[in-house]
Amino acid sequence: MPAAADRPESWPVHDVECIWKGAAPFSVRRDLVSVPGHPDETFGRLVLEHPGAVIILAVDEQERALVLHQYRHPAAMRFVELPAGLLDVAGEDPVRAARRELQEEGLILAGEWTHLLTTYSSPGLSSERLAYFLARDLSPAADRGGFEPAHEEADMTLDWVPVDDLLEGVREGRITDGPTAQAVLAYALWHR
Prior knowledge:
The chain has helices spanning 94-106, 152-155, 163-172, 178-191, and strands at residues 13-21, 27-34, 42-49, 53-58, 64-72, 77-81, 84-86, 108-120, 129-140, 157-162. By secondary structure, it is of the alpha+beta class. The protein is globular.
């Protein structure tokens, strides 16, 4: 295995305490962990269990990307974001989830899908794994596929922004949503 590659590894877990579990597909647990070979030296780690998500960079033939303007309460900000959604359907293929989310949030269908990258959002705290896709060959969707926006999603607005403007916004710190920045930067690398 190359030195510049992540690799699976699991340290001994001696106890697991459920801290929170609700209706959302998230939960928080506290693991009592030890370094391999030192079972008497335990320490606690909080883990946000997350089903994972998909992020879609939908780019049209004019090199414009579909963006959402959405309020996010924890940050008290209205962010420029890309269509995205949880992998909250058991066993759902990430590309299928991406297709669904693009239709639900953006009213767009795509004929061409390319995987850009996969990252963990905050591996020191969360199991959330994000799969990023480039969607091309775009066409309007007739409906949202049964999705009814509620709460913050009911307030989000859509816009088409040149990808170069998004890249500049990321570089200048005007666009700070992590998944949006990662998708735009990955596309810039992929596209060159």
